[in-house]
Amino acid sequence: MKRVIPYKQAMLTLPLLFLFGCATADVETSTEQTETPAPETEAEAEAPAPVPEEPEPVVTTTSLYAIGDILLHDSVYNAAKRGDGYDFTAAFEPIAPILTEADIAIANQESMIGGSEIGLSSYPAFNSPYEVGDALQDAGVDLVTTANNHTLDRGVTAIENSIAHWNEIGMPYTGSFLSEADKSELRTLTENDISFAFLAYTYGTNGVVPKQPYHVNYIDLEAMTPEIEAAEQAADITVVSLHFGNEYETVPNEAQQTLVQQLSDLGVDLIIGHHPHVLQPVAWVDGAEGNRTFVAYSLGNFLSGQQGDDRNTGGIVGIDVVKTVEADETTFELANPMFYPTFTRRTSADGPFEVVPLQSAKPELFEATSQHMSQWMPELEIVQ
């Protein structure tokens, strides 16, 4: 508070009064002295100015959810046949309320959606209907990753058709591209004043060689490093999708763990793993610069035609990103990790496939699945 100095008032000297008598005149003068204010006390003079109040920190939070492989075997798309097209709404309808809770939700579209005009196909060379992309979007998915061992199954035409449909419905994609210019355009999403950059890479493409290097991103640390560094500069949070590991192994191998550590050392914040078709645990990894990385080594299958409980058990992993702005400092924290176990089944012997909560479909698997996913992260919240 600003000090206030009291207003000082001075009395001017009165004019002389001349008094006249009959014979003798006596002159009287009257003078008032100006008042002098009392000096400030020592305490008043030395009192410090009050410290201005610090502004309250501004805190915002964005939740990111991710799901595993969308790999459409012929049993899945044949069950979704409706007239001249396909409808996968039933597949995601039971789980859509969970996905739509997220500020951002991402999925791994493992089979390319090249469309019916080039012929649908299943294992070992997949090509899927466009309509699964529409259903994912309707269920709340905001971005798809497309770098995996099946990206090149049906060649360039399937990639071009797939990307044309993603663009038509306004769904961001990353991992395979139409051109170098397309690849160089970093995919970012911003929610609640927090920006995310997305990258995706695969270990290989089943021996098929791409006609152009931009058709698919491969796991190559030397090539990945400048792209990750660019993402770190462009966005608050860097998310990397990795198609890696050994199929049907329930724990990550040494190569997976080494790569995750290398990416954490580069500053990657979130790593989402795919390819084993079964669940692998989530974990925290500490980076070289004191940063902390959240990794889900494998989210298993989300929707597929594979058989067996382990291959039909998947889930939704979630993490909150908390941004705090205080004075001139901005910090980010990863908080509230969660996992929502799911199970893929058919509604009837010849009915469509659907993804449902694991607790309702296979309650006998719930406890073991929960323990498996949280074994390296006891604070992981299992939601159902």
From TrEMBL:
Pfam families tied to this protein: PGA_cap (PF09587)
Region of interest: Disordered: 29-57
SMART domains xref list: PGA_cap
Regions of compositional bias (Low complexity) in chain numbering: 29-40
Signal sequence coordinates: 1-25
Similarity section: Belongs to the CapA family.
Name assigned to this protein: Capsule synthesis protein CapA domain-containing protein
Naturally occurring in which organism (per UniProt): Exiguobacterium chiriqhucha RW-2
